[in-house]
Amino acid sequence: VEKDGSRTLRCFSISSSPAYYKKTGLIELSIRIQQQGRITPWIRQQLAPGHLVNISVAQGEFILPKLALTKDERPKKYLFIAGGSGITPFRSMLQQQALQQKALNKQSIELDIHLLYYSRDDQHIVFQRELEQLQKEYPSIQITFVNGEKEGFICREHLQDYCPDYDLRTSYICGPTPMIQQARKVLDELDVAEEKVNFEFFGAAPVELKNNEHAVVHFQVSQKTVVSEKDEINTLLEQAESQGLTPVSGCRIGVCHQCICKKKSGIVFNTRTQTYSDTGSEEIQLCISVAQGDVVL
Questions:
Q1: Which of 23, 57, 174, 178 is the most exposed place for a label (fewest CB within 10 A)?
Q2: Are 41 and 35 in contact (CB under 8 A)?
Q3: Mutual orientation of helices 88-103 and 128-137 as an angle, nearest 10°?
Q4: pTM for the full model?
Q5: Contact 193, 169 (CB under 8 A)
Q6: What is Dmax (Cα atoms) for the chain?
Q7: Do the Cβ atoms of 198 and 172 come closer than 8 Å?
């Protein structure tokens, strides 16, 4: 958006489905207002019908695979685990499933979906009526609302009681970082294969480094070097900015890919995927990469 003469980039979840866009020509965004933020309160106060914004193509990797089942195949089984505003991408996925079934007169069911939706309490359930209606109309969609105030965080007992066939499902998790970490831990303890667990952080991914190394980062174009101690953890974007450099960036959580940079050599740790790179030349995202040893950009 353009505000006070300058353009500012923000990333938001699309909460409507591709099928809804084809039907209506509309894209819906569900934006949580950050009261101290520079942009989200301004959007609500200043944008009106007819105003223009710039929008990129959809980005991110938290997506369902395209399916095309034969008559003899059973529906693919999914477990969605949502916390708070992390419901927005799931709303898109559920809406897509419902509109596809409706277009095909409910004769083709490709997904068997169980949503566990954790809310702070009974007063903070986004899209509650819409979700209840989806569950009522489409037998392939099952929704369990969990009141965090009464029942607490996700645990083994919740999965075993609410979704006993969890081990047969591919899991998708989205919500606050502590909830995602706990859900991943619970699924791991229940021996759910790591490749069957997908997740999307609503905020910066936590840095989970068991052995963080002393690092020397050299920015080749500007000829600047940053040295960090063994226990000091900063992303490459933060290190660049500490030297007065101004690399292009947007979301700062690894979604928008605005801060992609060429790594010439060295190893970096990706805080989003929790994986290490190899030592060779490759493109990396500055906002989610932490140097391990000597790195040249």
A1: 57
A2: yes
A3: 30
A4: 0.76
A5: no
A6: 63
A7: yes
| Four-point Cα dihedral 192, 196, 200, 204, nearest 10 | 60
Q: How far apart are CA 154 and CA 184, in angstroms?
A: 10
Strands of 170-175's sheet, edge to edge? 141-147, 111-119, 76-83, 170-175, 197-201
Q: Which of 130, 118, 113 is nearest to 30 (CA)?
A: 130
Residue 207 pLDDT: 63
Q: 270-274: long-range contacts at Cβ-Cβ below 8 A with a sequence spacing of 24 or more? A: 271/204, 271/205, 271/206, 271/207, 271/208, 271/235, 272/201, 272/205, 274/208
Query: How many other C-beta atoms can be found within 10 angstroms of the C-beta atom of residue 40?
Result: 16
269 to each of 233, 238, 259, 292, how far by Cα in Å?
Answer: 11, 14, 16, 7
Q: Per-residue pLDDT averaged across 35-48, rounded?
A: 87
State the pLDDT at residue 95: 94
How distant, in Å, are the alpha carbons of 54, 87, 91, 151 from that of 122? 36, 15, 18, 12
69: left (phi over 0), alpha (psi -120 to 50) or beta: beta
* Residue of higher predicted confidence among 202 and 190: 190
The three-class DSSP label of residue 171 is: strand
User: Which among 201, 190, 84 is positioned nearest to 146, based on CA atoms?
Assistant: 84
SS (H, E, C) 103-134: HCCCCCCCEEEEEEEEECCCCCCCCHHHHHHH
Helix or strand holding residue 124 (H, E) = none
Distance CA 162, CA 145 (A): 10
